[in-house]
Amino acid sequence: MTTHDASLIDVARAAGVSTATAGRALGGYGQVSERTRERVLAAAAELGYRPNSLARSMVTGSTHTIGVVVTDVANPFFATALRGITDVTSPAGFEVLLANTGGQLASEQRAVTVMSEKRVDGMIVAAARPGEGAHLRHAMDAGVPVVLIDRQVSGVPDADSITVDNDHAAAEAVAHLVELGHRRIGVITEAGDQLARVRSGTRRRGLFPSAVRLRGYVSALRSAGLDVDETLVASARYDRESAYDAMTRLLGLAHPPTAVLCTDNVLASGAYRAVQDRGLRMPAEVSLIGFDDEPWTTLVRPGLTIVEQPTYELGARAGRQLLDRIAATEGPRRPQHIQLRAKLVARGSTVP
Amino acid sequence: MTTHDASLIDVARAAGVSTATAGRALGGYGQVSERTRERVLAAAAELGYRPNSLARSMVTGSTHTIGVVVTDVANPFFATALRGITDVTSPAGFEVLLANTGGQLASEQRAVTVMSEKRVDGMIVAAARPGEGAHLRHAMDAGVPVVLIDRQVSGVPDADSITVDNDHAAAEAVAHLVELGHRRIGVITEAGDQLARVRSGTRRRGLFPSAVRLRGYVSALRSAGLDVDETLVASARYDRESAYDAMTRLLGLAHPPTAVLCTDNVLASGAYRAVQDRGLRMPAEVSLIGFDDEPWTTLVRPGLTIVEQPTYELGARAGRQLLDRIAATEGPRRPQHIQLRAKLVARGSTVP
DNA sequence: CTGAAAGCGCTTACAG
DNA sequence: CTGAAAGCGCTTACAG
């Protein structure tokens, strides 16, 4: 136990050199003779010297830290994306400062501000509200590059973004069902309140992924020459129980749907359970499609047909994109908006 | 876009006060008159002033950042624990510096060193190797409090720890099976190579959770007056396929087990699938128990009996413990070793 | 190759 | 309540 952390000054004194020389020997910059280096290294080891990154960052202007802001780390989607991020940034020598917002805008704003003040070299953000970008605007104006993931945000058109083509993903699921002969196709969604807006056609920025998926559902029906029957659009909150109720409601209709699309995996698990409890056979009596390839979707019988998002890839690409931005010494280049494709995986819940 | 970030000096100049006064007005410490405060705040807003936490930390000696080191964020177990940590530390004004080690000791050592140099106020670590604690020893000697989660580590007996009572957890599962009349109880484990060590009885520190669970299995059998039949101890790597093979092997034995315990949820999913594919009925022909209450365990038919770990709580307690340590200004208190209890949840895979 | 000095942007006694 | 000065622990021109 040292009474006082040894600093470079202490090491320099012990080695009989200047702090500049000690710094060069220890930091691996500049030129130092072999003999001197050894003396300094020995002194450092002797004193248990631990460099202070804070001081170093103060002068170099870089922290080798990136900020990552998500709504819920416990959600497998974000946990997997996060893994993609760290797998890419860690070998490059960057660490991750993580914030969990719980989907609260105020919490996100605080996190972005604090990270900016801690001088992260850049940040990756899964925003809580697609319509609120002022805090991100501030960060970018201060020179902190921002990469958006999963959701576009209005107000920061110059931020890079990596998203999944949710429009296409949902449409592909619907097309799959249409091809199988379904005409009454329902949907369980968190974005039910956006149906009107979605039907009239809005631009993607400013929409949640769930709303974009709802739009994909609507447009795919239209392409197939089918009407959008509002009684088949069931709203649910983001939890299993709510989805269970929504599915039960759909199945209890006078004219129930023969197939249902769930716009994410949490909703799908609730819906799946509802079908089980009603004793209906899949796909004979009702077909079901979910999102994300989670382990349970292949363990249940029948297996669940899903739209598989490239979740890990989403994080990895975001990490790479941010590192590129940080490395780019020239002025601001044009923003990159990368859209990843989701893939339909057909299983027993739709195909006999 | 400012050419040059505004510093406190710039704000002070613009407000016509000293940097000390500007700092007091902005930082909320010391005394400032209302009039002065307003002038300073106005100047700061005008210049788009963004405090530099690095500089502040240099002088205050605290970063309000804690380090969290895990083997795999994408694993629901760690993702959930991480959520528990952030939920506790974030309201207290701390952010998390995250490192993912992939279970690699070298990676963990690097992460711990870097975090220590970045001057985190403390760290929470789920160690890659229970036997390797030198790097943690260094951190603690440098005055950085460490809280161990999920795994004890030798060499740092003075670090706090929050773990699950895995001995008891596994034993309870076995007792449940014994009570149901089972006499041939198998186990699928990652710690098969430790069987000899575990049978001869070693202390907990220095053992992986999976090895501790294996020990619980062994001691519960003994308590029930049953012999440990080594042919019923099936080794598997940490993935579904390997567990699938292990279960298939057990079921193909001349005298197969009538019940099998899987020491974690990944192994359980592989084993469950193997039972399905062999067309065996649970629990009539074989009973199965897993770990962790994941969504799929209630979606499959029959539902899987599990030992439920208090995962979120594990993280939350670790966060609280670390905050306590950081707040404690007095010298080193005695280390706290908190053991959380797991809970058996009986479902259809063991009970008709 | 090495050193003296300045500076990164703050906070903290110490005076007034 | 306010300010001048020192200092946190490094790195970086600038000389030699």
UniProtKB/TrEMBL annotation, chains A, B:
Pfam families: LacI, Peripla_BP_3. Keywords: DNA-binding, Repressor, Transcription, Transcription regulation. Signal peptide: none annotated. This is LacI family transcriptional regulator. PROSITE patterns: HTH_LACI_1, HTH_LACI_2. It comes from the Bacteria. CDD domains: HTH_LacI, PBP1_LacI_sugar_binding-like. Residues 6-60 form the HTH lacI-type domain. InterPro entries: HTH_LacI, LacI/GalR-like_sensor, Lambda_DNA-bd_dom_sf, Peripla_BP_I. SMART domains: HTH_LACI.
